[in-house]
Structure formats: structure tokens, C-alpha cells
Amino acid sequence: MARYIALLRGINVGGNKKVPMARLRELLEGLGYTDVATLLQSGNAVFTSKEKNPAQVVKRIEAAIAKEFGFEVSVVVRTRDELAAVIKVNPLPGAEEAPSQFLVTFLSDVPEPKRIKEIDPAAYLPDEFRVVGREIYAWFPKGIRDSKLATVLGSARLGVIPTARNWNTVTKLLELADR
Predict the structure, then answer these.
(1) pTM to 2 decimals?
(2) Which of 61, 81, 101 is the last residue of a domain?
């Protein structure tokens, strides 16, 4: 059995793509997943599955959401151990002291290096970012709302599906996965 974290992209934002968390839990249970829990209203779910292939989990959840709600939602999945490694590897030590200004952007795949090289870090100072595998860690000392870097990291420009969570949410998801 594997413990998974599913991160739904772009739901319940500004009244668009509404997915009630109670209904999401029911949907996941209907797919045969167990120990299902959600966190916040922004599409964070933790569950256990017999499925060993995360890509299959993504396909099943995306198809079920499209069928149930009538719109497409991209889903990024990590195992419990992958999420623990994300926290442990944090390449921006000290940023976690301002957890609401520290984001981890989870990517559907490793981005092509040339796409990352096209983002000039100096153009976005004082914001900082580091790419580690399928995650981008970004610290926004002046806040996220008006950050141009946050917009770039959340766009299709990277050639992969991105979905970001602040550090508080990331650590709470691991706590939820460990229950």
C-alpha cells in the first residue's frame, strides 16, 4: 500500500472550478482509495492506495473529476516519502521562518533545463528560487501577491504542470499523511 498526496491545480479559486472537499473525499473513496483526508479548500488530498504507479493515480483522479464535475483539473501526485524528501531537501534554509512567503511549486515532471535557464534570477530579486528535481522552492520576502516570479513559476512556460503550496500547507500535508 502506498500513501499518496494529490494536489489539484486551480480549483476553488475566484469561484471557478468548484470542487467541494467533502465531494472530493467521496470521489476518491469511490475510486477505492482509503484513509482519505483533505486539507483546506484548495485541492489537497491524502489517501492510501494499492496502486504502485503514481501516473495511474493521476489519470484515474483526473478522469473521475472530469466525469463528476464536467471540467478538467490537472493533478500532481507525490508519495508520502517524496513529500518528506521535499521538506528535508529545502535548498532555501531560513525561508521556512516566513512560511506564508515560502512556496513549493510541485511539477508534473522535471522541466527541461533550458526552460529554467530562461528565467533570470536577477530579474526577480529580492525573490529567490531553486529547482530540485520536480520541485521549485521560492521565497518571496515582500509577499507573493505582487510577485512577477510567482506568476512565471505558476505558468505553462516551464512546459510542465505546476501547482504551488506554501510551506505551512506542505508541512501540514506530511503530518496528515503520517496519521
Answers:
(1) 0.94
(2) 81
